[in-house]
Amino acid sequence: TFFMLSERSEGFAKRNALEMCIMQLIDRIDRGFKAANFPRKGGLVDGSLSQQDCGFEVAADLEYWRDRDPDERLLREMHQELRKLSPDATRWILPHYLRYSLTEKAKYTRMETSFFVLSLVSRSDGDFQQIAKRLSSMSGEQIECLAKVLEHLNSESDWSEYMGESIEAALATLKSLER
Hints:
Layout: H1 2-32, H2 56-63, H3 72-78, H4 87-101, H5 104-109, H6 111-118, H7 125-134, H8 140-155, H9 157-177
Helix pairs in contact: 1-8, 8-9
């Protein structure tokens, strides 16, 4: 009986520590991105994209959220379009992905967080330059916040088993940006 109570108490302590860590990360996200306003008209997508990949639909989809509170639908709509966003749009949308990635729901749907992580993985110099450009309007504090959330995801077995290599690659990209 003592062993079962001890085991249950240990499980509660671990769960409580995880919840505290997540609360601290959410607080860090809220502090770090409090000034991340919705971008000006015309500043939603990367203007250097090729004609066929210019992102007019992405801009229209994002414009819908100008006066609305972002929710899971936004993350689902944008998950494959993250590489098309301007630096300001990236800075605006990023805290929504970060908060969502810390939820239990994100562990089960995986799609939004997976694409978000993959959008930070550099497979070539061109990818690296594109990621650097997208993150260029973010402060050092915001980049550090992004890295802390990725580190947290990688420390959770659900995420590390599912896409640990991609999380590590995204962290390596962020580390390379510091140089």
